[in-house]
Amino acid sequence: SGKCPRQVQVQQRQAANMRERRRMQNINDAFEGLRAHIPTLPYEKRLSKVDTLKLAIGYINFLNELVRTDKGNDPLTGSSGLSRCSSRDDSKKIIVRGCGGNPFISHSLSWSRKSDISPNGTMYAKVWTPEDPRTSKSGTPFE
């Protein structure tokens, strides 16, 4: 085929480099998609891949716990997995913004039922508050 072995090696290396660039781009695109679906606090800079995975694990565990604690509750009788807090509890409002920092994109995991009103008329639900995994004291903050 008229090509010297050196030219063949160069072409093979270029093809391998192109495949690796495409592979890394696919991974980076997948992480961007994951970051867009995880509620986060407004960080100063974009989360690393490791921090993104840690937050995703924590969020999935939280959602799993919500589903687990709500199983067996009958929506027709009005019982739910919502927990009531006494009026002496100091609850804070937490706005969970989307990854892009757009103030109009947020996530809500709360709900209420008129048939299940607490004495003071306020309903409270579990809310997942993302922690900054870069400042987490333990190695695995989401167990």
UniProtKB/TrEMBL annotation:
The lineage's top-level taxon is Eukaryota
Q: Which residue ranges have biased composition labelled Polar residues?
A: 76-85
Question: Pfam families from the entry?
Answer: HLH
User: Which residue ranges does the record annotate as region Disordered?
Assistant: 70-89
Keyword Transcription assigned to the entry: answer is yes
Any idea what this protein is called? Pancreas transcription factor 1 subunit alpha
> Which key words are in the record?
DNA-binding, Nucleus, Transcription, Transcription regulation
Would you kindly state one Gene Ontology biological process term found in this protein's UniProt entry?
A: developmental process
Molecular functions (GO terms): DNA-binding transcription factor activity, RNA polymerase II-specific; protein dimerization activity; RNA polymerase II transcription regulatory region sequence-specific DNA binding
- Span of domain BHLH: 11-63
Which InterPro entries does this one have?
A: bHLH_dom, E-box_TF_Regulators, HLH_DNA-bd_sf
